[in-house]
Amino acid sequence: MLFICPFLDSQRILYQCSCKQWKTIHYLYFCRHCDETRCADCVSHEVDSQFCPQCLEYIPMLDAKLKKNKCAHCYQCPCCQNTLSTRIQLLPVHNPDSSNDSQPNVKKLCYYFCYFCRWSSREIGIPDQTGPGGFIEPVVPESQRLESLFEYYRVLSLKEKNEKEKKRMVPRTALSLLDKYGITSTLSPKVTATLRARMARNSSGLSTSDLTKSFPQLEDFKPSVGLSEDGLPKLNVDEYYGPMDDTATDDDDSSAIDVGHLNTLQQTLNQIERQPKKCSDLYPTSQQLVVKRSLRCKKCDHNLSKPEYNPSCIKFKIQLSAYYIVPELRILKLPSIMKLNETARIELTLTNPTQYLINVTLLPVDITNNPIADVILPNTVLQLTPKDDTGDLVDVESSNSKFNDDPNVISFRQGNKIGIYLFVTPKQGNGIQCQIQFRMKHDYVHSILPSTLKPASNTALNTEETFKTTKETKWISHMIKVNLANISD
Length: 489
Known about the structure:
It is found in: Cytoplasm, Cell cortex; Cytoplasm, Cytoskeleton, Microtubule organizing center, Centrosome; Cytoplasm, Cytoskeleton, Stress fiber; Cytoplasm, Myofibril. Its main location: cytoplasm. Keywords: Acetylation, Coiled coil, Cytoplasm, Cytoskeleton, Isopeptide bond, Phosphoprotein, Ubl conjugation. InterPro entries: DCTN4. The model is unreliable at 451-456 and 458-465 (pLDDT under 50). The relative contact order is 0.14. The two termini are 24 Å apart. Strands 1, 2, 15, 17, 19, 22 and 25 form a 7-stranded mixed beta sheet that branches. The chain is α+β, with helices and mostly antiparallel strands. Among the domains are: 29-69 and 289-320, no CATH class; 72-139 and 272-288, no CATH class; 329-453 and 466-488, Immunoglobulins (Immunoglobulin-like), CATH 2.60.40.10. The protein contains 8 helices and 25 strands.
């Protein structure tokens, strides 16, 4: 693991989600309607659009399903999985009908080439194309069998659906009416037996023979037969790695494993339908489509994140990330080693991401949540100035004189960021990592949608409605865990 500056390492500060999971603030969302944080596990994911990450072509849902979620124009290198480029080569072609031999005709040939690993489609014998476009993909050995299975189950599901619709539309029979009113005992046993036999014949289940008669395309379908363990063919290890005899010498060419011509596991899994063994059998794979998804709160069913439909647009229609609402904590100064039963001073930074003044209070938690160390938190309300994107120069002296900060609690104040001191005393040793927990409580300004207000005078001729945005302040608390340095005796 690389050594990261504590100020840049955001993994040391963890926030507790509403589902009791610990996440960093960059992986959390904030629901304005529930006033709770949400992670990726406690929100519902909805697919908005699908597009190719290489050519940025928007593909509708139905077309993407027919194309198996693959792009028809972009391909990936089978060796390094990078995007293949189309290289054009011009070849002179002699035209016998031309009277002027000094200007021969030129033929354009296109082939795929990878600029990262220098792989080309000519290495595996793919013929050059006369124009940029897709090549004929190799046939999957079991493609016909899979298509027959898909067709069989599709027809079977359609038949069962039709049978269910027929049962819904079947009128009430005489037997059901007789059973309902209890008059079957008055009839003769012969009539009752005849009605029940006819009812059983009409409600009989669907058989495979009836299915094939109704759908003649299933007559050639033959179900596969399961094999026992003894009936399965044994794996030929020598086919992959050569003979594994102990008597083989180093000079024997058959015992050497040619790693350069064998595929890796990742290369084989990328083409699982064919499972090639050698590098010469690798073919370009189509570029997989990526999706833009919107996130929705499972509790109140409101959107937390909704992107634009345009693939080239990186903006969001709705983006309720916790990073833009909840104050962010970072570690500024941290001792490399914390000693047992010795108080260490930790300096943290607190940043206000909103456009409003925020009051923050750090509250202690139950002692069972801090079994490793004792922590002393500031007992004052920390005020954070609003975020100003246009403020390049900050007057530090005027900010300090405005808020009258205690130097024993607040180390510095710069714009919308302040530095605070925490005092931690480890209670356990043995080289474990020191962890502390506390609760951060802050106010949050919630903007309500514009409300419609009617004019005060009823006799006014101007009937235009005025809009006004109301704001509501709420108090929210978050559970925070801080991972500090290791404890030494």
